[in-house]
């Protein structure tokens, strides 16, 4: 029987670590090849990691809530039927096929150091003890001079509570439920995984690319009529046709006529890269935060194909099952704030892209139609763009082209 270590694989481009959301097996369990063994959350999505072998689980190297670096040991499995090929005391390491290992060590969630002026932790406390505690608890421990590594947690999965910290601190010094001076009470949400990645990406985008916006309000009555007509056709029988799908198709057509919209800037080479394919991203709000999965080569798809791909992409994202490949390689994005009843906005660019289109709500409003005031279905379209690549003329040309197709969708069908 061979004892094998399975290291955390590289689950997507540029990812260096993942948080353990929960183990699907425990020590002593028998596992089969490709059986899901753990659910982890990367900076892009939640992913179930399969086992590369069949055998018996002998050790889980990271508890729930820990952060594990790519290439660090995740689980140890005794594989039956294999001859031990290494020296005694050594183990074999493996990565999933198709994933690249990176030399690294498991990194737990950051530990809180002793409060200023407090004594250093005693040497008898192991340095690698994993601490599970929420940020308010960590702050309370800091202020009270309590080393969390010496506290036994009574919360879920052994996590440390405020009461645990208070029991260790001097009772007369501060009660367990005392508020920290200067701290405003309230719930705290850990910034990690998808939310942390979103925060970092938006900060990087806002402070890297000089961004500007253009806005256009148009009559979408004919587009909504086309949607109702197409929905009754056989090719859309099993594919819900949303206004977003029609606008996405119009974006593809307009981008094909304005190549700079589907481009990026290679700063090192001082070159603008005009992408051959349009990988169209869609901003999706999920329980874990905002992600932008994309449809590869969306410009080559027919309207039914695009609608089907869009429905599948959004459903998968909301379920938390987006593949790493879906979340990388985007070249142009759309955000649909209209689904929330919002008229419009000026979104921040997805890093590495030169433009993002914003679709507002389509609603009945007074509109001058054929020289007379009428109630029409009106929508606001806006676009943010990287002003290093795209100037106001190019941005306005693209948005006017997009608006013309929304106003008269016959242009979309013939475009």
Describe what this molecule looks like in 3D:
Helix content is 23%, strand content 25%. It is globular. The N and C termini lie far apart (64 Å). It contains eight helices and 20 strands. It is α+β, with helices and mostly antiparallel strands and 415 residues long. Helix 5 crosses helix 7. The strands form five sheets. Strands 10, 13, 16, 17, 18, 19 and 20 form a seven-stranded mixed β-sheet that branches. A five-stranded mixed β-sheet has the order 3-6-8-1-9, with no helix packed on it. It has a four-stranded antiparallel β-sheet with strand order 5-4-2-7, with no helix packed on it.
Identify the overall geometry: globular
* Proportion of residues in extended strands: 25-35%
| Structural class by helix and strand composition | alpha+beta
- Please state the average pLDDT score: 82
Elements, N to C (H/E): EEEEEEEEEHHHEHHEEEEEEHEEEEHH
